[in-house]
Amino acid sequence: MDYQFFSFIDQPEQISNVLNFTESIRNKSNVSSFGWPVFEFQSHSGKIYWTKLHEVFSQFQFFISLDNQVVASCFAIPFNWDGSKEQLPSGWDKVMEKGFTDQERQIAPNAVSLLAITVSPEHQGKGFSKIILDNVKKHVNSRQLKYLVAPVRPVLKQFYPLANISDYAEWKTKEGKVFDPWLRVHLSMGANLVKFAPQSLTVEGSIAEWENWTQMKFPVSGNYVIPGALSTINFSIEEDKATYYQPNIWLQHNLN
């Protein structure tokens, strides 16, 4: 397979193409394509930091080109971490916040957290996720950083929103393999489970905002199962708001 792996700093002229590629996958995403639901990037950190990643940390944003076409992208953030489970941020929101805060305070990073990996639908199942992970590990090693972690969003968890994330992580197929394919990819490449992140990402919005994001109606207060959400979402008609807490699984990759 004649692919090329680049960071944004290597190919700055391709940044807009990669951003457009990633945005187009988001816009097309639905529960069957394992994409992100529209509301996922409406968290506080997502709204503040996501669009700044490529400007501040261009050396940690990556893409794969195949036949001069972008077929996969990876967004990540460097941060400082002492290596302990206790000091690992609570999830996706907080690790992104910490990365920007460390940069503003001129605290040198020694770790990188993956944030999102996207593969075009027509190239899924062809090993590009593993190719990205392998190349990111080499990139982190080349910069003499100590840790590579990821608050992993299990791709099939959205079909089982009532299951506890810790229980879900233990599920196996009939063949004895890890049930979730994205979790399985990471573990097959030597990653270790560090801890669960039950509130990795938090999205708050009014009832009108949620109806716009989901194209659903919420006539009464209560917990709702929403397509694309990894857990149920509590709606309060009286308070005119709903809050989504997305559970993730913190994994650490071996860089040796």
List descriptors:
9-stranded mixed β-sheet; 8 helices; 256 residues; Aminopeptidase; alpha+beta
Q: Which spans of ≥5 residues are poorly predicted at pLDDT below 50?
A: 29-34
How big is the Rg?
18 Å
Number of domains as seen in the coordinates: 1
CATH superfamily: Gcn5-related N-acetyltransferase (GNAT)
Tertiary shape: globular
| Sequence of secondary-structure elements | EHHHEEHEHEHHEHEEE
Count of helical regions: 8
Largest beta-sheet details:
9 strands, mixed
CATH class: Alpha Beta
- Tally of extended strands? 9
| CATH topology category name | Aminopeptidase
What is the subunit organization of this protein?
single chain
Strand content: 25-35%
Strand-pairing-aware structural class: alpha+beta
Distance between the termini: 26 Å
Residue share in helices?
25-40%
Question: What is the typical, i.e. mean, pLDDT?
Answer: 93
CATH architecture: 3-Layer(aba) Sandwich
Would you spell out the secondary-structure blueprint of this structure?
Elements: E1 3-7, H1 15-28, H2 44-49, H3 53-56, E2 61-66, E3 69-79, H4 92-104, E4 111-119, H5 128-142, E5 147-152, H6 165-168, H7 181-188, E6 192-205, H8 207-214, E7 222-224, E8 233-236, E9 241-253
